Amino acid sequence: MCGIVGYVGRQDAVPVLLEGLQRLEYRGYDSAGVAVLKNGTLRTHKAQGRVRELAAELPRRVAGETGIAHTRWATHGAPSDRNAHPHTDAGGRVAVVHNGIVENAAELRAELAEDGVVLESDTDTEVLAHLIARADDELEAAVRAALARVTGTYGLAVLDAREPGRLVVARNGSPVIIGVGEKAMFVASDVAALVRHTQRVAHLDDGELAVLDAHSFRTSTFDARATAKTTTEIVQRPEDYDLGGHGHFLRKEILDQPEAVAGTLRGRLEPRFGTAHLGGLTLDARELRAVRRVCVLGCGSAYYAGLAGAHTIESLARLPATAEPASEFRYRDPVIAPDTLYIAVSQSGETYDTLAAVQEVRRKGGRVLGVVNVVGSSIARACDGGIYVHAGPEVSVASTKTFTCTLVAFALLALHLGRIRDLGPAEGQRIIAGLEALPGQIGRILAAEEEIAEHAAWLGEARGAFYIGRVRGYPIALEGAQKLKEVSYIHAEAYPASELKHGPLALVDEELPTVALVPDDALHEKNRSSVEQVRARGGRVLAIAHRPLDGLADATVVVPRSEPELDPILLGIPLQLLAYHAAVALGRDVDQPRNLAKSVTVE
Ligand code: F6R
């Protein structure tokens, strides 16, 4: 979704801003723009489409020492040059880039129009530029005055031609990160735009504003009380955002999983005691023992990972555990029980619905742990504590390695909760041995890529597909279907295998293949009989199993066996490759599927 980049320093701002925008492309956007200040003159250029189109349209002479830039994902007003950011006031003095939503924009637009202001765009953001310019004060004071009139969410960056060499940024619900460089300051909504320039960053908190020049920055609350801000070192590396010889980030990230899973496990296993060491939980053994129920919240693939995680917690810790879409939870006025532990799951740590669910729990006095990939993100900071997934940056819009690593993080949490309760050390050691074997086992599945690509070729020709799994397999089936939908645009639905006969079977024929998870577990025979039901209706079946199924399915991908609680982690891997190769065969834009954004920061 929308992205912000800002620069103040001695170099020419334009290449820094354009490169920063390119780094944010993975988030999804429909238009882009830059505004730069040179010798007291503000120049703004905007274009619908890709950053490279904006770059191509920029006059050669455009340069500046201070600048802001934006990638827009339309909310108010269609994607167009006119609606792209930066937005300026009527005099072209103040420029604003903004992520989030000004909720009272309609009211403010009407008020400005009544005063004779001609609004050039259909956006909510433009009102900010007019309000700031009309405050007719120093930029910092003018931004404060404008924000006092605004309700909604924002991360924003502002330039004023009267104050060259200065940027003002503010945050309320949408990330703003300051990058500290050598005689230069950077601003971005995502560290991806900063990693090439600096490793030292400061995250603004909600309700904070910062004033930056080339040498320093200072932060304060909206009502002008100075705040103390420490900088931190970022863990991301520039090469995390390069293709590294792969055709697509999606494939790079799928193949990266042995290393990513090793990253999730690193330093967290305690084989001697058969438990996991999780430093960020903030709840001690006594507090965790008092937990009677677990409720996991997340959206999309993060929700599916939460469903799988809830199963693992229930199995290992014998605690009742459920998962719910955060987007629904936040609106149903949930009862927050004091002995329930809430867990928010998010790759980006910025998903608005998940953040709102966390805030709802905390408002009602509940305790929330985060299982989050992006360090220092809004959700991670809003939770009481948690586990970082440490999958490394995920650039492709469709989640793969973070999904897998989130399941691993849940296994660690379940082990920790289990060992505090009734899980014996030998059982804990069994799980630890299973976890340690995962990177190698994932590597073996990935080595079968060519074979899986052959199955993807026929799956890619289908009008739709079913994915079925039982109990632990069902969340994996949901995620498998989601991956196929997202990147290949083939209609795919997941069902618990047990539910097929209660309705969906009516759709099965020669043209609707089924991908069936048939692990060698206690439900193996039940899963076999579901496969038979599909084949009896002429449906083709691709099975993902622990051993060849003797002609039961049309084709079988064999995956290594793990511990039953960890099997879902491995069963999901071939489904990612299946979706990727089906999408490539169909010529889809696999890294940036249509209509989707990497981080959904609006409702
Ligand atoms: C699917 C996918 C989405 C996200 C969802 C939540 O491939 O990426 O379904 O899982 O939008 O995003 P995060 O995990 O960033 O909260």
Quick summary:
By secondary structure, the chain is α/β, with parallel strands linked by helices. The protein contains 18 helices and 27 strands. It starts with a strand and ends in an 18-residue tail after the last helix.
Strand order of the largest sheet: 3-2-4-1-10-9-11-15
Share of residues in helices = 25-40%
Bound molecules: fructose -6-phosphate
The main β sheet shows up as: 8 strands, antiparallel
Query: What's the mean pLDDT score?
Result: 94
User: Uncertain runs with pLDDT below 50, 5 residues or more?
Assistant: none
Shape: globular
With helices defined by DSSP (H or I, 4 residues minimum), what is the helix count?
18
Q: Determine the structural class based on helices, strands and strand pairing.
A: alpha/beta
Strand content: 15-25%
C-alpha-based Rg, rounded: 25 Å
Count of extended strands: 27
C-alpha termini separation = 12 Å
